[in-house]
Specification:
Number of strands: 2
Helix content: 25-40%
Strand order of the largest sheet: 1-2
Order of helices and strands: HEEH
Radius of gyration: 19 Å
Structural class: alpha+beta
Oligomer: single chain
Length: 88
């Protein structure tokens, strides 16, 4: 959203010599991070950024939940390892 872009640019400009203007922005990226939340009343900043691999005992569905982009390789390894164990 425009106000979010302005917020980020204002903070970014504090650290660079030549301030950036909104008109100079040619693209952007945003995403959602699925966080594990045991307490539905907890604030997102209080949630753990860890991940969890879960295997549904009835269907055998393997799910990966939570996590961070910086740990994607470990998340993938643990998920593939769980699949290998499930398939013997």
């Amino acid at each position: 959203l425009p106000d979010e872009a302005e917020y980020l640019i204002d903070h970014f400009n504090q650290f660079i010599g030549k301030p950036l203007r909104t008109a100079e922005i040619t693209g952007g990226f945003a995403g959602l991070r699925p966080l594990l939340q045991a307490d539905p009343d907890a604030e997102t900043r209080a949630l753990v950024r860890d991940h969890e691999v879960e295997i549904d005992p009835r269907s055998g569905l393997i799910s990966i939940m939570g996590g961070k982009w910086t740990t994607y390789r470990l998340m993938a390894q643990e998920t593939v390892d769980a699949a290998c164990r499930a398939l013997n």
